[in-house]
Amino acid sequence: MSQTQSDTVEELDVLVIGAGFAGIYQLDRLRSLGYSVKVYEAGSRIGGIWYWNCYPGARVDSDGPMYQFSREDLWKDWEYSERFPDWSEVRRYFDYLDEKLDLSKDIRFDARVTSAEFDEERKQWVVRAADGSTVRATFLVPCTGFGSKPYIPPIPGLESFRGECHHTGLWPQSGVDLTGKRVGVIGTGASGVQVIQEAARDAAELTVFQRTPNLAFRMGQQTLTPEQQQEIKDGQAARYAIRTTTFGGFDYDFLPVSALDVTPEEREATYERIWGMGGFTFWLGTFQDVLFDTKANDTAYEFWRKKVWERIDDPAVAEKLAPVVPIHPLGVKRPSLEQNYYEAYNQDNVTLVDLRESPIEEVTATGVRTAAGEVELDVLVLATGFDSVTGGLTAMDIRGTGGITMREKWADGVSAYMGVATAGFPNLLFLYGPQSPSGFCNGPTCAEIQGELIVRMIDDLLRSGRRRVEAEVEAENAWREHVAELVVPSLFDRADSWYMGANIPGKTRQMLNYPGGLPTYLTKWEESAAKDYAGFAIT
Ligand code: N01
Q: Signal peptide position in this chain (predicted)?
């Protein structure tokens, strides 16, 4: 860029990419510290993942009281109507935040960032967006989330389908009416489970194409009464206070006991109790060794399997949805929360196609053909997930000091010190990044807690007149080793999940989240910060 051109572009202290929870937190906090900050957002309104994922049934899998910011002036005037709010209510929450915090005036909507390069001379990122705009910023803070790049599998003939075909993560804002239609859903992850429940109710015929069964847990949905709302408000501050002490940033944690050290009766009673609580308690509030020990995991799996079989009429269908011999351990692939998912398969209008027995051969103009025959469809839903964690970052042409892009640097696997920065890309600090705790953590918790670490770091540097920070190669290599070591004693590597980068053909198999839990992560961050951010080269 010539000097003349650069003189005309806006210059900021911080440019944030993405207006979800993480981006909004950065905007609000950094602005309040007096910095010039803008957010570039690809969507037309705030909400991040809740803008794009407005498919029928899209719903929060964390309890509503935890699925919001912890500032008292924000939570005291806000109520979700359900324990697990749906996408439209979460959008209303974002509108509420916008009104309270006056966010939109500093957000450029419909501005998808396409490229960024570091100007070493001026210690600034030069960032360009698809709407033609360019901006310069000392710090670039991508808050692109884990799921901003939808994955559409290369199924032969997909483009020839003449009905409506939508990926859950690119759902039309105007909605899609499934009523009376012949609907097919490919994929049974969290998105698939949610859309299947709605389609089973509305569609004339629903065909579910399942490759791997979802080991889904009981949601325990409730419409909240005024008394429950009051109870939530009374406990709100206490809930937030313990978030930094728990593995997943929730208000509960693993039980400090092995599933194998209690009697079978005690174990059953505990499983019954935490199952009854609903939500993720059966996952992150269970015996401490369920995600680490095969025998312990088997006990949880068998409990879960029996619960599922009770609800399915046809044992052959039950075996496909909850096999007697587990396909992978329970909880090492992200579980979903369901309300009537398993009952849906008892309905006459719902058919399950097991892709392990009958793989998809092609999509035709009129439907999907598997080895078992063709299913005619009006609507095909691709609930096939995302190029998770890294996809949002590598989709942009971000070019560091050596001239290589982040995509090229991470072609054979990620390295990201503390999950926030990677060598060769100075002054670029990402939230929800690879090998950070975010993927195992309640979203708003991490947006605030990890977000505050980034805010503090930027503030520390700028206040002390230091304008360049970069992860050190040795530090990021050591972090990658640390993450790999944490995976070894766990069962996470036993499933082909997005946690392991294993949902995308050709992607390096590697743990993409920090599996040491939030408290350990925070301790490691504080150790580094106390030594003037050891592991980062600061000039
Ligand atoms: O994606 P997924 P998702 N042929 O990757 C299948 C979060 N989330 O969008 O398991 C046939 O989990 C694939 O099969 P398999 C949450 O963190 C949160 O559902 O690889 N099938 C799988 O069944 C979640 O974990 C919420 O064998 C193919 C599915 O597609 C994350 O988002 C709601 C295929 C993809 O499942 C991602 O969930 C929704 C192919 N070629 C999502 N390729 C809430 O909390 C893929 N599949 C509200």
A: none
Edge to edge, the sheet with strand 205-210 lists: 164-167, 379-382, 182-186, 205-210, 350-354
The enclosing H or E element of 186 equals strand 182-186
Whether 513 lines ligand 1, by a CB cut-off of 6 Å, is no
- On average, the pLDDT of the chain sits at 96
Ligand 1 atom, smallest distance to 154 CA: 41
CA distance 55 to 87: 8
CB of 64 closer than 6 A to ligand 1? no
Residue-level pLDDT at 3: 40
- With a threshold of 0.85, does the pTM exceed it? yes
Ligand 1 lined by 384 (C-beta under 6 Å)? yes
Alpha-helix residue ranges (DSSP H) falling in 114-189: none
Give the tens place of pLDDT for each residue, 321-374: 999 999 999 999 999 999 999 999 999 999 999 999 999 999 999 999 999 999
Answer yes or no: same fold for 3-46+103-149+387-538 and 151-215+331-385: yes
For ligand 1, say whether the CB of 350 is within 6 Å of any of its atoms.
no
**Is 151-215+331-385 a domain of CATH 3.50.50.60?**
yes
CA of 190 to the centre of ligand 1 (A): 6
Does residue 355's CB lie within 6 angstroms of at least one atom of ligand 1? Answer: yes
Residue appearing with tokens 């150790």? 527
Q: Domain 3-46+103-149+387-538 falls in which CATH fold?
A: FAD/NAD(P)-binding domain (3.50.50)
- The CA 192 to ligand 1 mean position distance, Å, reads 7
- How do the domains of the chain map onto residue ranges? 3-46+103-149+387-538, 151-215+331-385, 246-314
Nearest ligand 1 atom to alpha carbon 61: 45
Q: Which amino acid is at 127?
A: V
